[in-house]
Specification:
The chain is an all-alpha fold. The chain has two domains: 3-117, no CATH class; 136-241, no CATH class. 52% of the residues lie in helices and 2% in strands. The protein has ten helices and two strands. It has a two-stranded antiparallel sheet with strand order 1-2. Helix 8 packs antiparallel against helix 10 (219-241). The longest helix has 23 residues, at 77-99. It is elongated, with a radius of gyration of 23 Å.
């Protein structure tokens, strides 16, 4: 686990104990649920550092964990990761409540919660703004190319070399090269997130195969899908600039009949 996240969760644990003491041990489940949702949808730059330290968080999925109905249908990567952190923290606090005898368990080990504390439709708004990042702004002014820029440049160089000999297959070539340079592994995506935390603001946007991921893609795959589309678009622009593809009257690049310029990630 990320050391940053470990420290945050330890502070949440201490705050929960203080809260229960002040509240005469009343409503232990509701107190834990509210505390986790209000404190663990972490701001963009902090979450990016946590992801850098623990890339496995990019394998998490939204499932039914997000308690904000406005965020649930097309959730940001940051909200997906945070919702999983919230659930893990909540489970830890409930275990703490059991150990302190504030909550009981049944014969099968299931935690028993008063009905008055339970509400599956309870809303907790996601207050984190994943479109804001001081780290991303600062890194824009740094000298030298970013990790993502180097990746895109390498793909463009390979594409241009191949295009000279395969000019009539420009679109398929762009698909091939963008696929070759696609990154899927969490440990490869995490450094890009650390460099540009705004990637946590990306959303599925129908860019991944719904059947393959059962409508619930991992956070990292969402980022990968967007990066692959960015690269494909750049390669198509290059092909057009070299005369390998043309534009129609509306300014759109003309693709071979039957091809789609917005393929989904499989």
């Amino acid at each position: 686990m990320s050391q940053i996240l470990s420290d945050i969760l330890e502070n949440i644990r201490k705050e929960y104990l203080q809260l229960m003491d002040a509240n005469e041990r009343k409503q232990p489940f509701l107190a834990a649920e509210k505390l986790c949702h209000e404190k663990l949808y972490l701001e963009t730059d902090v979450l990016a550092k946590i992801v850098e330290q623990d890339p496995t968080l990019l394998a998490t999925r939204a499932s039914d964990l997000i308690a904000d109905s406005s965020e649930r249908e097309n959730p940001a990567v940051g909200a997906i990761i945070s919702s999983n952190i919230v659930m893990a923290a909540l489970e830890s606090l409930l275990a703490l409540a059991v150990s302190n005898k504030w909550l009981d368990v049944d014969a099968e080990g299931h935690i028993l919660v008063e009905e008055a504390e339970l509400n599956p439709h309870r809303e907790y708004k996601v207050l984190a703004d994943y479109s804001q990042s001081d780290t991303a702004t600062k890194n824009l002014t740094k000298k030298g190319a970013s990790r993502l820029s180097l990746l895109l440049q390498a793909a463009e160089n390979e594409f241009m070399e191949l295009l000279e000999s395969e000019v009539h297959d420009a679109y398929q070539l762009a698909l091939q090269v963008s696929g070759n340079y696609a990154i899927f592994a969490p440990e490869d995506i995490a450094p890009l997130v650390a460099e540009n935390p705004l990637l946590l603001g990306l959303r599925p946007d129908d860019m991944v195969d719904e059947e393959l991921f059962e409508g619930d893609p991992p956070a990292g795959i969402i980022i990968s899908g967007h990066l692959t589309h960015i690269l494909l678009d750049q390669l198509l622009e290059l092909a057009e600039s070299k005369g390998a593809l043309a534009r129609d009257g509306a300014g759109h690049i003309i693709l071979p009949e039957g091809d789609d310029d917005s393929p989904v990630i499989h």
